Amino acid sequence: MTEHPTLNLERELWARGFRRLAGVDEAGRGALAGPVAAAVAILPPDPQIEETLRGVRDSKQMTPSQRESWAERLPALLLDFGVGFASPEEIDALGILPATRLAVRRALAALSAPPDHLLLDYLKLPAGDLPQHSLPKGDRRVLSIAAASVLAKTRRDALMRAYEAQYPGYGFARHKGYGTAAHRAALQTLGPTPLHRRSFAPLRFVESNEIGQ
Hints:
Layout: H1 8-15, E1 21-27, E2 36-42, H2 49-52, H3 64-77, E3 80-86, H4 88-94, H5 96-109, E4 117-121, E5 132-135, H6 138-141, H7 143-166, H8 172-175, H9 181-190, H10 201-212
Parallel strand pairs: 1-4, 4-5
Antiparallel strand pairs: 1-2, 2-3
Helix pairs in contact: 3-7, 4-5
């Protein structure tokens, strides 16, 4: 594992003629509330972009201020990008993996032009016209995936902060819908909101307790 994500894979694919390499990552897959987000980042096919984006890495390895700073800068530095979401209702209806793929398809649809190759972190999309690489820890290894991880995380975090005013008492601005102790305590006291994923085990437990009371 390298200290920071590199352009090694992008360079190889650029040399093979692929120019619009779409790095793809998601955020919020394991949360108890809120949508799952996906982002697509296409780097300009220029090796110098590795130095320009030094400091971009897996969003989980960055501080909130680092993520926000890069999220502001990235749109002007990328060749193209797109962000998509799947709602809690879609997660409950489809399951988290199909809903994540739906968010990815929406992010791809938000691009100004289609990519010619996908680079994904773990996730695999159903076979289609586009070639794809799915890599374990791709957001730590591949720069375009790392850039997508920053966009997905910051866009989803902003949405969850906005929900704080709509649903006070749950702490969405702090935990962004993940199952912290404070969030679980709020669920026990206040019950679930329309943002909560009722198909997830902790929500089923809360609702079964409510029915039994």
